[in-house]
């Protein structure tokens, strides 16, 4: 058990640091290329994310499960057999994905960019998409290799390679952009081309790390293979059928957010053009890149804890321990709201300061951020509810419910954008996600006969706690306006620290004083609260 916990902790820590770096790098990159050009970056990355999901097809997680299954039976030969075939398959699917994306770059750019668009040209978007497409050759191969190590419950290669991949990507991205613009006097568009190429360079860094661990562990794995029991001699067709059964729901779970962003990518500019609302500001770039990066911060805070509860759901469901399963579901839903809602409320009230700190002082940017932040609660809830469906063996509903939500987004996006511009796109996203989550919860209720008045009462109480915190934050901001402005980023940092500290203290005091924090995260908190007389 200690090995499992250690491995999970290593993997979670690596993923968290990688995601944090993925948010922070945007600050210097934004200052290098400017607000007029940053949006071009997301025109390339959203199609890349979707194509990557198709190329990988959820295989790494499914592959690790498959390897672990046969290793537990003492059959190490079957896993090695699949490794050889799988790596070759990933190279092929990755290369096909690269070709498709490279060829489709221009048609996709033409669909994305309105004919009256003055910010980016079709050639700019086409070039950015083509430069990022090279990463598709390497990333699927690398991801499957990670899955092999995870099948041996050896998480270090995955965690370290993810971290190195991200660090190499960011160093290359920022370094090349700086050199192109400030040393060689190149254009910002050239700098962005190198920036999107960083995905390929980062992936190469990740592969080098995996090769190091492979050389280190290969003698041990070969020894296990020699002492392996007689192979079950599973046919490759059966192997891939088993992997696909597990992988397909994971694909939809992983690409839910990029799919919604992709709908905006295809429809936003043309809808704005049709309504005669084309702006000199890249509103789509703010929505899908700069604001979106900040919106995902509360999601990172919450899902790590909630997703850690999911393995328990599978265990209790398998053993038919209904009472324990209900308690686990109760805790999952409460924890996600308890952690996400105060972050969303606080960030929305500090949207001016946050947008200034990360990017620039922008009334439009901070307004879009404030309006978009409530969607973070849904972004956190969807993977949790979907993972619960996996735990109770209802994977097929993940696909159906997500597609229903996506269809709503697609059908509502253009009319709502015409009426409300970026707020319309946000509203369509919220409606689509809400529908998918409601359907997920509906399946959980029907399948598990799940009812919980406790969760409803607790969520209502958490909302009241946040309302109190919001009032204190607003009063604090009003007081700070008399003494500290927002002329510099330092002033914005001071305002964030003061307001965030006071808001966090109020929320923490109420949650500890009422005992809701102890009920969610353990009575161990009580010994700390006693030190402060709570």
What does this structure look like?
The chain is mostly helical and 534 residues long. It folds into two domains: 1-234, no CATH class; 249-534, no CATH class. It has helices at 2-24, 26-33, 39-56, 59-72, 76-112, 122-133, 135-151, 156-183, 188-226, 236-274, 283-308, 310-318, 322-349, 351-358, 363-372, 375-391, 396-420, 422-448, 453-480, 489-514, 516-521, 525-531. The longest helix is centred in the middle third of the chain and has 39 residues, at 188-226. Residues 1-5 have low confidence and may be disordered.
Summarize the structure.
The chain is mainly α.
Topology (SSEs and partners):
Elements: H1 2-24, H2 26-33, H3 39-56, H4 59-72, H5 76-112, H6 122-133, H7 135-151, H8 156-183, H9 188-226, H10 236-274, H11 283-308, H12 310-318, H13 322-349, H14 351-358, H15 363-372, H16 375-391, H17 396-420, H18 422-448, H19 453-480, H20 489-514, H21 516-521, H22 525-531
Helix pairs in contact: 1-8, 1-11, 2-8, 3-5, 3-6, 3-7, 3-9, 3-10, 3-11, 4-5, 4-7, 4-10, 5-6, 5-7, 5-10, 6-9, 7-8, 7-9, 8-9, 10-16, 10-17, 11-13, 11-15, 11-16, 12-13, 12-16, 13-16, 13-19, 14-15, 14-20, 16-18, 17-18, 19-20
Keyword list:
534 residues; mainly alpha; 2 domains; 22 helices; disordered N terminus
Structural class: mainly alpha
Detail the poorly predicted runs.
Answer: 1-5
Radius of gyration: 24 Å
Number of domains: 2
Q: Helical content, roughly? A: over 70%
Q: On the 0-100 scale, what is the average pLDDT?
A: 86
Summarize the main sheet: none
What is the distance, rounded to the nearest whole angstrom, between the alpha carbons of the first and last residues? 35 Å
